[in-house]
Amino acid sequence: MSGLPKCPQCGSEFTYEDGAMYVCPECAHEWSKDSAAATDEVRVVRDANGNVLADGDTVTVIKDLKVKGASLVVKVGTKVKNIRLVEGDHDIDCRIDGVGAMQLKSEFVKKA
């Protein structure tokens, strides 16, 4: 075997190196060698107490949070049900009753 990774798009094992990229001759997908190594890492999101969060968890807000662009405040103790983890600076996507759809940072919540 060549030791090269399979194509992440079509699963072909006939990939080849082209400089700093891997190329799949079957579907013409190209990806960097750095991203091939990064796909093996699993992203873990933790709350303020260090508990691991997952999609569908219920969390509680631990600090008053001002809502940007509105005069609303999310109060301490607000329960947020059915969270969804996303990539980025604000790593929790959710819907809060009375406020609507929001993104929160995991450092301002604790697992309920």
TrEMBL record:
Annotated Protein YjdM C-terminal domain ranges read 45-112
Instruction: Kindly list the residue ranges recorded as spanning the membrane.
Output: none
Q: Which residues form the Protein YjdM N-terminal domain?
A: 4-32
The record's family statement is:
Belongs to the YjdM family.
Q: What name does the UniProt record give this protein?
A: Zinc ribbon domain-containing protein YjdM
| Species name | Thiobacillus sedimenti
